[in-house]
Amino acid sequence: MNRRALIAIVLIGAALVVGATACGGSSSSSSDETEATTTSEGASASASGTLDGEVGPGFTIEVSQNGEDAESVKAGTYTLKVEDKSSSHNFHLIGPGVDNTVTEVPFEGEKTVTVTLEKGTYTYQCDPHASGGMKGTFEVT
Ligand SMILES: [Cu+2]
After folding, report:
1. Residues forming a β-bridge with 117
2. How far apart are CA 66 and CA 52, in angstroms?
3. How far does the centroid of ligand 1 lie from the alpha carbon of residue 122, in Å?
4. Ligand 1 centroid – CA 97 distance (Å)
5. How many A from CA of 127 to the centre of ligand 1?
6. Among 18, 79, 92, 98, which residue has the fewest nearby CB atoms (within 10 Å)?
7. Predicted TM-score (pTM) above 0.70
8. In contact, 120 and 81? CB cutoff 8 Å
9. What whole-number distance in Å separates Cα of residue 6 and Cα of residue 9?
10. What pLDDT sits at residue 60?
């Protein structure tokens, strides 16, 4: 009985040593995954952010960034949130690579779109009243 018990203890001990060695060996491969993550983050480093558009309720239309009138915006992909406060106006953004009627004239409410802005001049306007000056521009650099 004593010998069998001793043999059992030795076998368990050997199994533990093998298990510990296996764990130690696998942990060294994790550094490869860390490098891969860092590389993919660096590749997607283009500018992005949020722009706010507002049209109506009067004959006004504007685009702002961080609460200020947008005049110069960095190129990149933006979330454009438009508040259309009138059923007699619409919001239309036109520029390099973009021709987006975000809201139609009868629509009232909020719409959010994603736009990719390239270098150049972008015009936002209310189509029926653009000729009367209901429009504005901002530069993308
Ligand atoms: Cu209008």
Report:
1. 76
2. 8
3. 18
4. 24
5. 6
6. 18
7. no
8. no
9. 5
10. 98
